[in-house]
Amino acid sequence: MAAPLNDDRSLFTLVGELPDQIQALVKAEIDQIKAELSYKAKHFGIGAGLVIAAAFVGIFLLGTLIATGILALSLVMPGWAAALTVSGILLLIIAILVGIALASFRRGSEPLETIESVRQDIDAITGRGDYGGY
Predict the structure, then answer these.
(1) pLDDT in tens, 98-126
(2) FRET label pair with 58: which of 19, 21, 52, 75, CA 20 to 30 Å apart?
(3) Contacts with 125 (C-beta within 8 Å, 6 or more apart), sequence order
């Protein structure tokens, strides 16, 4: 009879290694969840900061729109035209900041990859479903 190869481990050896492998798998999954949540928190924080910046600029927009209305009513053409131009520029800045914030929120709201990985691991342990052909 030939000596067992490194790949030919006994059932008792495999069962004995199982708790260590499960512990390593759980630890790896927890580390991955931590990394993903940190990534998502970062992008939500960036998005929230940009929305606050847009709101701050919006306060100036409100002031210039009020000034524009006052100056337009007084029919001082150069004054209201200048105020309307400033209002348009501020509105453009707000639109850009909100667009960047929305993109950051979308990046941060993508589903967690770890949840699907954990489901596959449970399927592999229980012998259900397609779990990568192992």
Answers:
(1) 999 998 888 877 777 777 777 777 777 77
(2) 75
(3) 22
Please write the tens of the pLDDT for every residue from 42-83: 889 999 999 999 999 999 998 888 787 777 666 656 676 777
Buried b (16+ CB within 10 A) or exposed e, 91-101: eebbeebbebb
Single-letter code of the amino acid located at 126: T
Would you list the DSSP string of 36-91? HHHHHHHHHHHHHHHHHHHHHHHHHHHHHHHHHHHHHHTT-HHHHHHHHHHHHHHH
0.85 exceeded by the pTM?
no
- Report the half-sphere exposure of 63 (CA within 13 A, side-chain side): 7
| Contacts of residue 39, Cβ cutoff 8 Å, sequence gap at least 6 | 108
**Among the listed residues 58, 78, 59, the one whose alpha carbon sits nearest the alpha carbon of residue 68:** 78
3-state secondary structure (DSSP) of residue 8: coil
